[in-house]
Structures are given as structure tokens and as C-alpha cells.
Specification:
195 residues; alpha/beta; Rossmann fold; two-stranded antiparallel ribbon; 7 helices; 33% helix; globular
């Protein structure tokens, strides 16, 4: 299965690299970093530079992962970006969002009527992006059908492991967590940051 991670300038690094580390250790999963930008060189908000693929070079039927970061504050008003994102998300077998990436997917209206969560420090802003989403404040991550959303930054790792537990099995996810020496949060309601 392809894991297609959307990269844009000013993304949050751990939103990308945390889940990427999980999926790189998952047999049968291929990780692709891609962009909707014309340039192939993309920089995170603290200037980590990556060369990534064009959207035309990926299998769009796989898993789409949308990170957050400072860029989401401007991309949420970019109608061309949102139109392309909606097209990609509607083709994907699963959509996973990390942090404020949920605001971008919510702005496409593909989350209308669905349960979702986001970064608690930006929760008021994210939830204002689309009141038709059933926003869950106390949640490390939320699953609703083929949509997965996680809280802030490091929660994307737990969401990715939960996705693998659902897609394959718990032992598979536990083995990856052990291999990367990560203490996995298995209870998605274990969210101390929501207080």
C-alpha cells in the first residue's frame, strides 16, 4: 500500500517524519513524499529542505497523509490548493491528518458530518474552519470510517500505529513500536493535552 505524504512549505517536521518513520518500518507499505507545488524542493517551517515528487508521480489510490504546520493558516484560504486536495482525498483509500492538517481536509468539506480532532493549542482555530465537522476535543486520535485525524505533532505517531493495527493487526503495530523504541499510546482517549 502506498503512503502518500503531502508536503508544502512551512510544514511541521514531526507531523511528517514521525508517521514516516512508522511506515518505513512496515513491510508492504511504500512511503512517497509529494507536493502540489511546481517546485520539487520544499522547506519545513524551520528550514529543513526536502526534494519531493510531483503529485503526478504517485498512485493516488493509496493512503493520503496531510500534516499541519504554520502553512495551514494560509493554505486554508487557497482555493486552488483546496480543490486539488479535495480531488486527491476523494480518490484515496484512507485519509490521515496530523495536527492542523485536519483544518485543511475539513475545508474541503470531505469531513462534513464526520468525527475528527486536531492540535489542542490550535483547536479553536481548527474547529472554526468547518462547524459541520463533529470535532472531538478529548482525543489523541479519532477514526471515522476511512478518515483518521490526530492531535498535535507527536500524536501522529500513535495514529499511524493505530492505522496499522486496524489495517494489519495489533501485533504488527506493536512490533514496529518496539523496533523504533516508541512507547505506544493505545487508548485514543488518553489525551492530557486537551485539559
Amino acid at each position: 500500500m502506498n503512503i502518500n505524504i503531502l508536503i508544502f512549505n512551512d510544514f511541521e517536521p514531526l507531523d511528517v517524519f514521525g508517521p514516516m518513520e512508522v511506515f518505513l518500518h512496515a513491510d508492504g507499505f511504500q512511503v512517497n513524499l509529494f507536493t502540489l507545488d511546481k517546485a520539487s524542493n520544499i522547506k519545513s517551517y524551520n528550514q529543513i529542505s526536502l526534494d519531493v515528487k510531483s503529485v503526478s508521480d504517485i498512485n493516488k489510490k493509496g493512503v493520503l497523509l496531510i500534516p499541519g504546520g504554520p502553512a495551514t493558516r494560509t493554505l486554508i484560504s487557497d482555493t486552488d490548493f483546496l480543490k486539488e486536495l479535495a480531488s486527491l482525498a476523494s480518490e484515496a483509500a484512507y485519509c490521515l491528518t496530523v495536527c492542523t492538517g485536519s483544518a485543511l481536509l475539513a475545508a474541503t468539506h470531505l469531513m462534513d458530518g464526520k468525527r475528527a480532532t486536531s492540535n489542542k493549542l490550535a483547536f479553536d482555530w481548527v474547529t472554526s474552519s468547518n462547524p459541520k465537522v463533529n470535532w472531538i476535543k478529548r482525543a489523541r486520535w479519532v477514526v471515522d470510517d476511512h478518515l483518521y485525524s490526530s492531535s498535535g505533532v507527536s500524536a501522529g505517531i500513535d495514529m499511524s500505529l493505530a492505522f496499522l493495527a486496524n489495517a494489519v493487526n495489533e501485533e504488527f503495530a506493536d512490533n514496529i513500536a518496539h523496533h523504533i523504541e516508541y512507547i505506544r499510546v493505545k487508548n485514543n482517549n488518553n489525551d492530557p493535552f486537551s485539559k
